[in-house]
């Protein structure tokens, strides 16, 4: 199941710039108890394992977008320091929260993000816009922190932010993928190093369940470039509708869990 999830995560990473994190969290919450992980730790383990796998998934997606000229590296450089700090702090907060609180936080986040993508206003594109400056670093702190708490690569925040700043949708997706690598590194480290002793059974580092993280990452790396090609073939408005529908489905899955 983990490699199958990796294929879905990779496609979503390339198509939407989200690293597949939200769908991974929803699926892992169902699957991890079957591997001996208690319900009280399942949500934390799902979030942590998702963040660990996102590192390679987002890296593969970012490379595919980079080859097509769709990653705004100056913007990534401005956001990276904030993403590192936010990802680490967010993981510390998540470790301290109850699993049920985290679950409802993910559900609420999915619905809010979907509403923003459908009803939010965007600026008209202004040529080759490359957002930069301290404001992007500050935004990175918030994006990193929220991403760590809900187990995502930050695409559902980074993409709307960049589109609002005037970046074309496909470039926003590519840039978001690169940012997801930074978020994944900081968050996964936080979940691994700050979990209570013996939080999970064997084959785990802190809250990161290695069979899930590795199994997902191996196939997602191969699937992400295909998602990137799809993103370049689909128009911006269509991408937003797909994005919103995806988020609502994830929320519904968690409600049924």
UniProtKB/TrEMBL annotation:
Listed transmembrane segments: 7-32, 44-64, 76-95, 101-120, 132-152, 172-193, 205-226, 238-256
UniProt key word GTP-binding: no
Keyword match Transferase: no
Pfam families, alphabetized: TauE
Topology class, membrane: Multi-pass membrane protein
Family under the similarity heading: Belongs to the 4-toluene sulfonate uptake permease (TSUP) (TC 2.A.102) family.
Listed name of the protein: Probable membrane transporter protein
